[in-house]
Specification:
The chain is an alpha/beta fold and about 400 residues long. The chain is about 40% helix and about 15% strand.
């Protein structure tokens, strides 16, 4: 299948989540993405979780479909090789490093129309990671039970993910502009700015500015709506959400609480067709709905709610999810053999092009493509490559040595 970025070459010099996710997304869109690592690998090469072989499941997950080159990034000759891979190719680089020789100024001096994407911790260039950014934004102080006094971090690196996708979008936009005008781009995306923008877009930073109030910790309730978790008779937890008046009325009907809810509305002067009143009196409503869930099994609850428009889902573990048809029969997932990991169902591009989800391709072994990349894209001879390997400017077969070990 022809993809939008087929024929485009992108060089990625990165580690951790945001920049590798950007590169993998661009690869899934058809680009040839060359990940350049220092000899021995970057600091994320052994990041958990690990397979029994010791290979990083995390690293392979974020580098599917890329090519890998290992080059001494401290040596002048190694730096020149990476610069040539960028400027002699399509002039596009994605990085989260602060290497001066990889800066926009250095590369633009070699190729004025270079597209340079720099992922940062903070907009001023200072360092930060997802978890420190999140701590400074406010989310950990509104996450968790209402009675909890301290911060609760979430395990999803949300700002890394959003930042990586913003960066991929920026690359696509910059390519389009360069095709139209011939102008390159200097792009920077900071984790903290992504987090601040998201909190602002969702109203969390606007609310204290315009109303003098701010979001409070609500546990599993949904701010401004009626949504709550319930537990079945056999101990299965459910999340139930009613976004509309119809959702709420059908929840009332299925739980058999109609007469009580009507009396409650009259006593409180409330209109439960209004989402504000459903939210305001959420604790009382939850107390009325809870017995019905506690008296029924998970199977009975699922069967009853499935006949309504009520939004619901049972809480599941990752292990439960991966065994379900929404993974095993989902065209987003295809069976992939990853050296050092094994065979598993791996996600491809979530977006479908003309009804087809581009399938995943295995991640490379570290440095496995070094010689081929230098020969194909820089025209280096076998003798040139042998000399660079002898000088330890490049490492052509680290992946093979890892396998031997």
């Amino acid at each position: 299948m022809s993809m939008p970025l087929t024929g485009v070459r992108i060089v990625e010099v990165s580690s951790f989540v945001a920049a590798p996710l950007c590169g993998m997304t661009l690869s899934q869109l058809g680009a040839e993405v060359i990940r350049v690592d220092p000899i021995g690998g970057a600091s994320d090469i052994h990041r958990w979780p690990l397979a029994k072989s010791g290979r990083s499941i995390y690293w392979t997950g974020l580098n599917k479909g890329k090519r890998s080159a290992t080059i001494d990034l401290r040596s002048p000759e190694g730096q020149q090789l990476v610069q040539r891979l960028i400027v002699d190719g399509d002039g596009i680089v994605v990085t989260n490093t602060g290497l001066s020789w990889l800066s926009h100024e250095q590369l633009a001096g070699l190729r004025p129309d270079v597209i340079h994407v720099q992922l940062l911790g903070r907009g001023d260039g200072s360092t930060a990671v997802d978890y420190t950014v999140n701590a400074g934004i406010g989310y950990p102080l509104v996450t968790g039970p209402a009675t909890h006094a301290g911060p609760i971090n979430h395990v999803l690196p949300a700002w890394d993910v959003c930042c990586g996708l913003y960066a991929a979008l920026a690359v696509v936009a910059a390519i389009r502009r360069r095709d139209q005008t011939g102008k390159g781009a200097r792009i920077s995306v900071a984790l903290e700015d992504v987090a601040l923008a998201t909190a602002g877009n969702l109203g969390l930073l606007t609310e204290p500015q315009v109303s003098g109030t701010e979001r409070q910790r609500l546990g599993n309730a949904i701010y401004g709506q009626y949504g709550q978790d319930f537990t079945s008779r056999d101990g299965v937890a459910f999340m139930v959400v009613t976004l509309t008046g119809r959702h709420f009325r059908e929840l009332v009907q299925v739980t058999g609480t109609g007469a009580t809810i009507t009396a409650l509305a009259e006593a409180l002067g409330a209109d439960f067709n209004e989402e504000g009143d459903r939210y305001r009196y959420r604790d009382v409503l939850t107390g009325l709905f809870t017995p019905w869930f506690a008296e029924h099994t998970a199977e009975e609850i699922s069967a009853a709610l499935s006949t309504t428009t009520v939004l619901f889902e049972r809480y599941r573990t990752f292990g439960e999810v991966v065994a379900e048809q929404r993974v095993t029969s989902n065209p987003v997932f295809t069976r992939l053999h990853q050296e050092g990991i094994g065979e598993y169902l791996a996600p491809g591009m979530p977006a479908a092009f003309d009804g087809v989800h581009p399938a995943s391709r295995a991640a490379p072994a570290l440095g496995q493509d070094t010689a081929a990349i230098l020969a194909e894209h820089l025209g280096l001879s076998a003798a040139d490559i042998a000399r660079l390997a002898e000088a330890k400017t490049i490492d052509c077969a680290p992946g093979r040595r890892e396998a031997d070990q």
